[in-house]
Amino acid sequence: MGALQSLGEALLELSPARRAELGLPERLLDALEAAGRITRHEARRRQLQFIGRLMRDVDPAPIRERLAQWAAAPNAEKARLHAVERWRERLLAERDALDGLCAEQPTADRDRLAALIEAAHAERARAQPPRAYRELYRALNRLFAPRP
Fold first, then answer.
1. Which residue, among 41, 35, 46, has the nearest Cα to 13 in the 3D structure?
2. What's the rounded Cα separation, in Å, for the pair 66 and 119?
3. Cα–Cα distance for residue pair 39/59, rounded to 1 Å
4. How far apart are CA 61 and CA 55, in angstroms?
5. Maximum C-alpha span of the chain
6. Which of 55, 66, 59, 74 is nearest to 22 (CA)?
7. DSSP 2-43
8. What is the mean pLDDT of residues 125-129?
């Protein structure tokens, strides 16, 4: 019962649009909506117990799975952006890094990336604003973007 009540509390944190994606029963959706409007501590606690009771009629496994997917999405995006940043630094630091990138990402535009790397080195040498450095990041970001 406590686990179902905790799951109900997690559902309270979701937007109404996300709750609708879960396909929850109408009665449970109404109870969640009512709980969102309750501000008094004891009344909210009782409403959460009621939500826990209503959760008995729902299979919690798909709900937990979907919540985990939603929670993992920002972490996956952060990891992707960190990988892009690591590749940019590696491309600027190592001569043969472009070969490794092109082997890993066959769709990479080798000539464009090589030109951006050279321009970034030239910018650093002349202490200019990092335009090519930023453009290299954007090019890598597009390269590593998730495919639909």
1. 35
2. 45
3. 28
4. 11
5. 68
6. 66
7. HHHHHHHHHHHTS-HHHHHHTT--HHHHHHHHHHHH--SHHH
8. 94
- pLDDT at position 138: 95
Do 91 and 117 contact (CB within 8 A), yes or no?
Answer: yes
Tell me the pLDDT band of 85, cut-offs 50, 70 and 90.
very high
Look-up of token digits 């009540």:
5
Helices within 22-96 (DSSP H only): 26-37, 41-55, 60-93
Q: Which helix (H) or strand (E) holds 134?
A: helix 131-143
Which tokens is 66 given?
A: 């979907």
Q: Which amino acid makes up residue 28?
A: L
Mean pLDDT of the chain: 90
Q: Report the pLDDT value the prediction gives residue 43, as an integer from 0 to 100.
A: 94
Q: How far apart are CA 54 and CA 90, in angstroms?
A: 54
- The runs of H, that is alpha helices, within 94-130 are 97-104, 110-126
Residues in the chain: 148
